């Protein structure tokens, strides 16, 4: 019998953004551009635009569970991107599925506050994230989120490494601490893994653009999309960073709202994105970044 063709599927769990720049909308655009079939479970409806978040309306934990059951019993994803959770009960529902399906890659972007400083998860939610770190394939906090989770103020590269190692000490399997909020002309991301005691640094020139809404969502969903296609974690991170930088760069001269607009996620075609095979052997220099072992 001829083998049946199957989509690589990425499930995005998070909030809906009516402006289209972040949340589930950005996740599905990213998956589509990377040639992956996007699935979605809505944790919250939001009122937001390029100027900020005005309101959040979480769905019930029962509603979220019903959505996840429907997806997993029919066409289960190969990777999951977890974004904004409206309540700790929602996060516990998702972690129940992570426990039931450990073979799936789980990428968590721990959205604690919006980029406009609107609170999205309380203290109990942060505790739940920390308690479930071993179930997550990758945690992708920015500097502010890493500080909130660890209590370590992250203002520079040295403090970022302290916070990243603290998260690993709390049980994380891998942490990509994003350095976009650390001042400087260069942006450095920090990768911590169980397989390597050293931290891997990725440094690249900062892109000056107002259209940077949804960067965390897009990076995490791009990484999950690559993992769904069978990439290694390092390949997925490199591919995700490459896609994000393209989306940021292409949007620098475009008007997309009166504040921080969404990025240019409709890049030429999904064929422009590097595949795992194309990244093999060149993962540390993809998109012109400098990556090296921190001695």
What are the key terms here?
UDP-N-acetylmuramoyl-L-alanine:D-glutamate ligase, four-stranded antiparallel beta sheet, 9 helices, six-stranded mixed beta sheet, disordered C terminus, 295 residues, single chain, alpha/beta, 35% helix, 10 strands, globular
Which helices and strands, and how do they pair?
Elements: E1 9-16, H1 23-33, E2 37-49, E3 52-58, H2 61-72, E4 79-82, H3 88-100, E5 105-108, H4 123-131, E6 138-139, H5 143-150, H6 157-169, E7 174-177, E8 186-193, E9 200-205, H7 215-228, H8 233-250, H9 276-279, E10 290-293
Parallel strand pairs: 1-2, 1-4, 4-5, 5-6
Antiparallel strand pairs: 2-3, 7-8, 8-9, 9-10
Helix pairs in contact: 1-7, 2-3, 3-4, 5-6, 7-8
What does this structure look like?
- The chain has nine helices and ten strands.
- The protein has helices at residues 23-33, 61-72, 88-100, 123-131, 143-150, 157-169, 215-228, 233-250, 276-279; strands at 9-16, 37-49, 52-58, 79-82, 105-108, 138-139, 174-177, 186-193, 200-205, 290-293.
- A six-stranded mixed β-sheet has the order 3-2-1-4-5-6. A four-stranded antiparallel β-sheet has the order 7-8-9-10, covered by helices on one side.
- α2 packs parallel to α3 (88-100) and α3 (88-100) runs parallel beside α4.
- It is globular.
């Amino acid at each position: 019998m001829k083998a049946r063709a199957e989509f690589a599927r990425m499930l995005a769990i998070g909030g809906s953004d009516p402006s289209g720049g972040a949340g589930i909308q950005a996740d599905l655009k990213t998956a589509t551009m990377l040639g992956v079939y996007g699935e979605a479970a809505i944790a919250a409806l939001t009122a937001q635009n390029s100027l900020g978040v005005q309101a959040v309306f979480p769905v019930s934990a029962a509603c979220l569970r019903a959505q996840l059951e429907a997806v997993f019993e029919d066409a289960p994803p190969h990777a999951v991107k977890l974004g904004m959770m409206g309540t700790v009960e929602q996060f516990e529902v998702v972690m129940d599925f992570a426990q039931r399906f450990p073979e799936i890659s789980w990428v968590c972007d721990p959205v604690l506050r919006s980029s406009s400083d609107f609170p999205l998860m309380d203290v109990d939610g942060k505790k739940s994230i920390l308690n479930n770190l071993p179930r997550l394939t990758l945690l992708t906090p920015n500097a502010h989120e890493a500080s909130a989770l660890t209590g370590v103020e992250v203002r520079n590269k040295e403090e970022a490494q302290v916070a990243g190692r603290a998260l690993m000490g709390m049980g994380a399997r891998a942490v990509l601490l994003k350095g976009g909020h650390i001042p400087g002309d260069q942006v450095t991301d920090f990768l911590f893994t169980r397989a390597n005691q050293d931290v891997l640094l990725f440094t690249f020139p900062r892109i000056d653009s107002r259209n940077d809404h949804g960067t965390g969502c897009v990076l995490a969903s791009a990484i999950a999309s690559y993992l769904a296609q069978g990439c290694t974690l390092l390949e997925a991170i490199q591919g995700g960073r490459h896609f994000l930088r393209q989306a940021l760069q292409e949007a620098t001269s475009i008007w997309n709202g009166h504040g921080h607009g969404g990025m240019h996620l409709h890049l030429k075609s999904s064929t422009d994105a590097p595949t795992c095979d194309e990244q093999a052997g060149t993962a540390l220099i993809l998109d012109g970044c400098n990556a090296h072992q921190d001695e």
